[in-house]
Amino acid sequence: MIYQGNSLSASLLDDGIAEVVFDAAGSVNKFDQQTVSELNELCAALESNAGIKGAVVRSNKGAFIVGADITEFNGLFALPEQEILSWVAKTSQVFDRFEDLPFPTIAAVNGFALGGGCEMTLACDFRVADNTARIGLPEVKLGLMPGFGGTVRLPRIIGADNALEWMTSGRDKKPEQALADGAIDAVVGADKLRDAAMSMLKQAIEGRLDWQTRRQQKKSPLSLNANESMMSFATAKAMVTAVAGRHYPAPHMVVDTLAKAAGMDREGALKLENEGFVALAKTDAATAQIGIFMADQLVKSKGKKQAKSASKDIKQAAVLGAGIMGGGIAYQSAVKGTPTVMKDIRQDALQLGLNEAAKILGKGMERGKVDGKTMAATLNNIVPSLEYSAIKDADIVIEAVVENPKVKAAVLKETEQAVSADAIICSNTSTISINSLAASLDKPERFCGMHFFNPVHKMPLVEIIRGEKTSDETIAAVVAFSLKMGKTPIVVNDCPGFLVNRVLFPYFAGFSQLLLDGADFVAVDKVMEKIFGWPMGPAYLLDVVGMDTADHAAGVMAEGIPERMQRIGNDPIQSLYQAGRLGQKNGKGFYDFAVDKRGKPSKTAAEEAYKLINIEHREFDAEEVMARLMIPMANEAVRCLEEGIVASAAEADMALLYGLGFPPFRGGIFRYMESMGLANFVALADKYAALGPIYQITDGLREMAASGKSYFA
To answer: Is residue 252 flagged as an active site residue?
Structure first.
């Protein structure tokens, strides 16, 4: 044994090859500070052993190395900039040290080689991957850039253009694409990976593969002339600006760093990379995006734990109500392999549901993401029916009929009579109390809410609503089924609007009051989209939701939480609804919707909407617009946490991210408050407190701010 650490080891084989094996104590290999330290010690051991002719690096896990240990980042990034710079510089120098070993090296890549794992492969002279490999530098998704030499080595291996695409998109690559780009040298079956790596390494040792020239290329300036350099980086800057916009500094920093480092050797280029990494580590965007990653891991871990405790396996599903939503749910269940009955009382509705599934599949085929076999299997998994008898064998039934409590209660009661005694019954209601619906059932313990978001196939979230009498077994089974459907389940307790809609409607109320105070809805949308970062401003979102749906939900919220959510007099949303301006569904809302000459959807501000609101316009600065919409949302989210509707700030953040499209660079509603500083948020809310109860903060939040506490402690 040449070296033995906790996470990696090296042994000398008979033919002078050192076999370096990553095998951490946990489920995956990652570059925490301990592993980096061990890699440095390993390099010293390899350098001092004169019998080594070459080294192969592989993993004993199902994945090569998944990246850096992100759990260490919050502590590291709270340090002064100079200390972060010292850490990242020392770490990247360890990778340099491995690259400079006096013999050829090769990485045998299986599974994920991401971030620091990919950078480990780049420090080797050769790379061979099996067909399970996924290779990439996804740091921009955390608001960062590669920090262990990735911006230096990758462009010198695969060219600047390819490297810019890899790093600014953050997408990992399948082995075939990585091979085509030149990031790896061969792809083999998993059972041949080690032998293939050994064979290639022996060729290098024997001089049949020129490893010295390869290594020197990684240490030298990029081979670009002035025109090539200008074209590459100017094009990349334009693409990053178009795709990432101004809210995500990381991809911009990648382009700028590569452009400045193009004419430098490894030492100079690495210095620029280290400095760029540190600058990004101190941004709010990195804090937010790392926070999202950690929250996502928490939600997924919690979901998997709950699913493991499920005693009921969902083999057959049923959906009641075959409209756009019902069709979307049936599709999502069927495409993931669960046979699903789609039941309705009208044949034309069943056809609509089937058409919805076929439309989603058709678009997938156009983009090359769905093949004919998948399309046929999915449609065969959906069985349309007009009869309750068709659902008798269902393990789970998801009711998705019209959002009317009396209709839903009647359908649920009929359903209970048609299914087996242990079948789970769910309601896809968006606002109606689960406890009130449960009153119509003889066995409320097997009932819960299962709130999907439209369009079902695109929105990751499923809100699972626990009623007072819902059993733990029911929740566990529904969580497991949600995961099987490819969704992210978040369990919340029952209340009007549950979590997502409960925090959304104060936001809409703030918008309505802002319009009545003279704001132009187009200007508000522009601020909330371009500056705050929402995918849609409130007027556009209301048009997409539908004014009828919004008006109905506002009524439910007003009845359920009258102390804060009473209807506003002359509410513009209600005025548009009563005038028959329903939004996208009938082509007229705040905006008029049409199709342009090229067949693309278009929207223009509707003069009729301005007339219905009938308020003289005045200018509001962007900060006031954002404050007046976001304070009510944040306050209601705090109340949901304090009341136990949602278990943690992290889960609330992920629910809004996955259910509403909350801007990722802001990290979620709680992360948004914390990035501002809770004391600053309290001061801002107090400034607008006279506008009404939705602007008034809780005593709990005031105490948190005064004592310097965090929702993520």
So the answer is: no
